[in-house]
Amino acid sequence: MATPSWVVRPQAMLRKFFRSLSVRLLAIYLVMGALFVYGSLLGIRWVYASDQMRELVSGHLSLHVDYVRKDIGNPPRIANAIEITRKVPIDIRIVGPGMDWSSDPGFPEPSSLEFGDSDVFQRRHRDVVATANFSVARCVTFS
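Above: the chain sequence. Below: its structure as tokens.
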């Protein structure tokens, strides 16, 4: 028995489907999107595997801590520290003779924190902590 002329064979239907410009453009779009995601993930892994990100963040964090210390002053003014914590989402702890203030009651004791090695951070702050009567805790937590 012969097939009617209105019945389309599956091979012919697939051939028509893959010759469609819309399908070809969609395939190109999906392939390029997958390549972009793969390349982005490789780039992120490379940045985190190298020490460049740590050096970059360490430098910026050190500079930020310098600015915060200057804004708080020496001897530190609690009102300035409170104002900084209202403007910027950070917690501050000030420890010194007769003073132990923290912007957050759950802020950890500086002695309980472990600081990793960082030439930039240690070089800038080693002398500040040793010579000042008051010292602002060297850790800044971001909320």
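Residues 48 and 54 are 8 Å apart (CA to CA).
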